[in-house]
Amino acid sequence: MSRNYAGLSRERIIIEALHIIAGRGLGGLSMRRLGDALEVEAMAIYHHFPLGKEQLFNAIAAYVTSPGPGAGALDDPEARESEQAAEDGEPAGASEPGPWDARITAWAEAYRARLLEFSGALSLLAHRAPRTPHSLATRALVEGALGEAGLTGPDVERAADALYSYCLGAVVHQVRHQQEEDAPDAAEADARFRYGLRALLAGLV
Amino acid sequence: MSRNYAGLSRERIIIEALHIIAGRGLGGLSMRRLGDALEVEAMAIYHHFPLGKEQLFNAIAAYVTSPGPGAGALDDPEARESEQAAEDGEPAGASEPGPWDARITAWAEAYRARLLEFSGALSLLAHRAPRTPHSLATRALVEGALGEAGLTGPDVERAADALYSYCLGAVVHQVRHQQEEDAPDAAEADARFRYGLRALLAGLV
DNA sequence: ACCTGAACACCGTTCAAGT
DNA sequence: ACCTGAACACCGTTCAAGT
């Protein structure tokens, strides 16, 4: 009972942190509480995130925006070889076959669903945009689809930015209003997201 | 020197808090540091925000989204009579005369400018949507303009949500990427915002 | 009404030490 | 390599007290 080989890992820590965030909010996440949840002393976390809580926040942001166990490893300069692991467990997205607009819509719905799943960590994304292999690849797929739609030159980047802005903004908008008494239910929230997405896509191309 | 009539007020506290947030980030804002900046003991702040830091955060969120000195007073149940003060110092917005699309564009640019001005407090907005008289009136103006554009029924609310989502998302997107080496400069960021806004408006109506 | 000052529980992080 | 435990500076908040 003295020595504790808890089998701690960056991913276990991130997932447990997201549990705490989901249950008690971002402000409820402390290193000590995280240690308790992992059945480990708080200081053990520093062995996996030597730069402390800020580095953990970065890793959580990367995990939320980039599905797959390898995502959090980006912060670790000596773990680059596991980058291709970011392809694991990928939800349906822009990589599916089909016409360009269906691919963009599928990506947008998957991106939104993931942000909604970890909505407690949304405020971490306000000042963090971790560049993971997954995020770069996905962005390239979105821009490729926009190229197929006929966009050229700087319009491709501008349109992609507009789509990312809308998706992220729609989730933030939904979350920040969802405890109001006249807030839309889940079905109506979905409908509003699609309504705006269709309009934006129609205006973009 | 013993007694200290610092002339503390909710608005002074909010403005000083925003200075600290701008300089050291949201994590750098502590009640003790805020007290120092106001030349007052930290505990004096609790006289104006009896519910503590959470209430201060709410007031900051209201101040950022609703210009005017009266904005922060919404949290104070015994200060409702000052609500009409929220009209003070209003930036150009949807209330100007002109065609509906010019009014919406003016509102969107002003909304974005204000969010950008207080970008350090953006993450406070992820889980807070304070309903101020100003925010309700502005929303009504946006929906009115969309009605003039020909939208009817539930489309008005859905289109307004899409516009709010896009504006907020565009600012978050810009801020979270702005320390990357290949980030757009201010002029290009403005251009991208307008590009997406025009597209969304075109698709909406 | 408005502010002070001591106190308490909690926090992030460092560091030396254990295995 | 991986984790512990004590320590330090700092934090939010309560409470009794001052004017």
Structure description:
- 2 copies of one chain form a homodimer.
- Chain A has 8 helices and no strands.
- The longest helix of chain A has 24 residues, at 154-177.
- In chain A, α5 packs antiparallel against α6.
- The N and C termini of chain A lie far apart (63 Å).
- By secondary structure, chain A is mainly alpha-helical.
- Chain A folds into 2 domains: 10-63, Arc Repressor Mutant, subunit A; 67-204, Orthogonal Bundle (Tetracycline Repressor, domain 2), CATH 1.10.357.
- Helix content of chain A is 57%, strand content 0%.
- The radius of gyration of chain A is 19 Å and the shape is globular.
- The first copy, chain A, binds a DNA duplex (19 and 19 nucleotides) through residues 2-6, 8, 30-32, 40-44, 46-48, 52-53.
Layout of helices and strands, plus pairs?
Two copies of one chain form a homodimer.
Chain A lengths: L9 H15 L6 H7 L7 H4 L4 H13 L34 H18 L15 H16 L5 H24 L8 H19 L1
Helix pairs in contact in A: 1-4, 5-6, 5-7, 5-8, 6-7, 7-8
The structure holds a DNA duplex (19 and 19 nucleotides).
Give keywords.
205 residues, 2 domains, homodimer, Tetracycline Repressor, domain 2, Arc Repressor Mutant, subunit A, mainly alpha, DNA-binding
Q: Mind describing the biggest β-sheet of chain A?
A: none
* Count of individual beta strands of chain A: 0
Cα distance spanning the termini of chain A: 63 Å
What would you report as the Rg of chain A, rounded to the nearest angstrom? 19 Å
Distinct helical segment count of chain A: 8
CATH class of the largest domain in chain A: Mainly Alpha
Largest interface, and how many residues on either side? A-B, 40 and 40 residues
Unreliable segments of 5+ consecutive residues of chain A: 71-90
Query: Any idea what the CATH superfamily of the largest domain in chain A is called?
Result: Tetracycline Repressor, domain 2
The oligomeric status of these chains comes to homodimer
